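General statements about sequence and structure are easier to judge against a single worked case. When preparing material for the folding task, we compiled for one chain both its residues and its backbone structure tokens. The amino acid sequence and the backbone structure tokens for this protein are reproduced below:
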Amino acid sequence: MYPKRIVLMYISEVSGHHSATIAIEKALRVLEPQAEISNINAFNYTNPIAEKIVNSIYMGIIRVAPGIWDYLYDNPEIVKCLEGAKHNVHKKNTPKLKRLFDKLKPDVVVCTQAFPCGMVAYYKKKYGLNLPLIAVLTDYVPHSYWVYDSVDCYITPSEDVSRRLIDKGIAAEKVKSLGIPFDPRFNEPLDRDAIFHKHKLSPELPTLLVMGGGQGLGPIKTIVKSLEKVDKDIQEIVVTGTNKKLYNSLKRKIKKYKKKIIIFGYAQNINELMHIADIVISKPGGVTTSEVLAKGKPMIIVEPLPGQEANNTAYLTKKGAAIKVDEPQKINSVIDGLLNNPYTLKQLQEAAKQIGRPNSSMDIARLLLKK
């Protein structure tokens, strides 16, 4: 029997969608090393110029006018208006997709973002194929751009999301709550003291991990400045992602700060950094959230972006696994409150563990290998 052929599709290189496909690929290679896995940026493959333009527009909107994105995101009127344009884009992309699939001959296609999911769903209907198409949702609210009748299975982060998908008309037997995939390394045992020693940090001090996603977004400089006012002696790990401007700015200022701070750019060892953190201050991207929950860490969310992040925040705070802070300059007061109240910290930890899915990537990989 030939090795299983699996195509994973995402959009945008520095994104949770890509992190999710990488996580699934790693899990698949553990379970079936002979599997032939292709991990493809679908937007770049079909529309390389458009990808750059759309990413640039998206980042501009998010930075300058996030309210516009809030209006556009999962707005039923917008969804309806875009149906014709979406159909034309999928139709135009079908020949490229056919050449790709004729070459790779996949047994199953997995999409971690709605755009490639819609593209493959259209391709299946056009050619009358029964190619298994799996949609893996990486946020805690299922927006309408995911809904296609030729998707064979939806993998969701939680039972709550599954119910909402079913309410949108998806058959219950197509929906499975397995969690958001993240790097299986996060489940490996680590030597806490060794990590502290490697980074010249003290295991005796409260440790805060400050992140802004892969692109280093959010008011990180304001957060770091506010943390200077925390009453207790703390130490901070700041990860700036691909945001070189932020990295350089913090590097220049670091000597002026009283608190112990170490700074990383695009870090490959987030599993280690999260392992030693007592509190994680971060954007609530789906994959990051999945990692934090699996580690059972208290999470503080500051100024979530409209759309996915706002919805993820609502879910996490409702479940008692995170605290939302609207004014980043006052985050010091929140940290003081948590450090002075171990019971509240413990409650956040327990809530995180309760809704975490530490085995999500392996569970998803097992399901794919059965298709």
